[in-house]
Amino acid sequence: DINNAYHVRFVGNNAPNEKYGIQLIGGNGIKVNSFTSDIEMAYIKLIDIDGIAVKYINGQDLLSTIPGGSTYQKHKNAKIHDNLVINAASEGLYIGNNFKNGDEIRMIGAEVYNNCVLNSGWNGIDIKAIDGGIVFNNLIDVAGITPDSTVVDSQRHAFDIVQSANHIEAYGNV
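The chain above was modelled as a monomer; its predicted structure follows.
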């Protein structure tokens, strides 16, 4: 898990002769939670794992105050690109936020591109509660395959960009 971090680059593109310089097999995947912003995750291969989730825990305050009294947005600028997710137990990629007591916690700005998700148990790529972003050139092959009866139809899509996502440009996704 990545928590309470700013300006993080988790990028595996420096490995000679390997497109995906970071490889994770089995486990819970990569989770980015609480108070994390300005993050880039790229050139990562995840196999038999829960995928990549960049979402924030319910009920957190969106703004933080720094010395001198100015404030800044905590949850912003996720850049997720050039990753390969194979056999994700739930979503291949989950980018955005969820709800608590009807209140939405919103992320500002996301770029999701050139990712490949093969065999996801739930949605291949799930985009929620984001203001402003771009989702392009992603490939999903077989999504929503879990036999789990608790998974509802809305979790069985290749791409799910829900109404709570505003000003999202999406193109070239297959």
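The chain has a mean pLDDT of 79.
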